[in-house]
TrEMBL record:
SUPFAM superfamilies: P-loop containing nucleoside triphosphate hydrolases (SSF52540). SMART domains: AAA. This is ABC transporter. Keywords: ATP-binding, Nucleotide-binding. PANTHER family: ABC TRANSPORTER G FAMILY MEMBER 20 ISOFORM X1, ATP-BINDING CASSETTE, SUB-FAMILY H, MEMBER 1. Signal peptide: none annotated. It comes from Flavobacterium pokkalii. Residues 7-236 form the ABC transporter domain. PROSITE patterns: ABC_TRANSPORTER_2. InterPro entries: AAA+_ATPase, ABC_transporter-like_ATP-bd, P-loop_NTPase. It comes from the Bacteria.
Length: 244
């Protein structure tokens, strides 16, 4: 694994009134790594991601993303990352081509670059015949794959994926992970949140959040050995039981 840190988080916390959503978390992510950010719904994963991508201010703590301090340099962070939100983030009432053009413009790509990237993207996804169809007419699995591809338009150093396979069928989930592997092979760092514990097996390292805290962080293999179990789901269940 490349030992160059591309995300570094120290004592990051987020409070909403008396409720602590993210509680003093610290971790590093390395260049080209597929880093799984796991936990049950409500564990604090999405809140943590929003702080790392610069759209939510932490209550306390520090974070460097792609070499930039998120607190003081959020705009530079945003230029160096891609983000795919938990809820589908493209416009249903625009065509595939219009969505790619729109987001390419937001990412600051030139007209020629957008044209080149559009051709490349629809070819890789096999959507040449659907390019002028409204995105709203696509099945959810295709929407998710398109959304991931658009998050990579500007060739970011890191892409944050928040529950990218939620609600899609097992075959589409597998295809989506093949896309993730292909991108990581090109050197892109993938930071992925999921509550599907079987998807932890696909990551280089995983952290497991329980009630706002990181309770475990290691490779899936090491975590299974540590807890003397055969699946990441059993690791998670043991952690949850230990905290109760």
């Amino acid at each position: 694994m490349n030992q160059e840190k591309i995300i570094s988080v120290q004592n990051l916390s987020k409070q909403f009134g008396h409720f602590t959503a993210v509680n003093n978390i610290s971790f590093d992510v390395y260049k080209g790594e597929i880093f799984g950010f796991l936990g049950a719904n409500g564990a604090g994963k999405t809140t943590a991601i929003k702080m790392l991508i610069g759209i939510s201010k932490p209550t306390s703590g520090e974070s460097l993303v792609a070499g930039f301090d998120v607190k003081h340099n959020a705009e530079m962070v945003k230029k160096n990352i891609g983000y795919m939100s938990q809820k589908f983030s493209m416009y249903d009432d625009l065509t595939i081509k219009e969505n790619i053009t729109f987001f390419g413009g937001i990412y600051g790509l030139s007209r020629n670059k957008i044209k080149e990237k559009t051709a490349q993207l629809v070819s890789e996804l096999g959507l040449e015949n659907e390019i002028n169809k409204l995105v709203g007419a696509l099945p959810l699995g295709w929407k998710q794959k398109l959304s991931f591809s658009v998050a990579l338009l500007h060739e970011p150093k890191i892409v944050f994926l928040d529950e990218p396979t939620g609600g899609v069928d097992p075959i589409t989930r597998r295809q989506f992970w093949e896309m993730i592997y292909a991108q990581a092979d090109k050197g892109t760092t993938i930071f992925v949140t999921t509550h599907y514990m079987d998807e932890a097996e696909y990551c280089d390292r995983v952290s497991i959040m329980v009630e706002g805290k990181i309770e475990a962080l290691d490779t899936p293999k090491n975590l299974k050995q540590q807890y003397n179990v055969t699946s990441m789901n059993e690791v998670f269940l043991q952690l949850a039981r230990n905290i109760e």
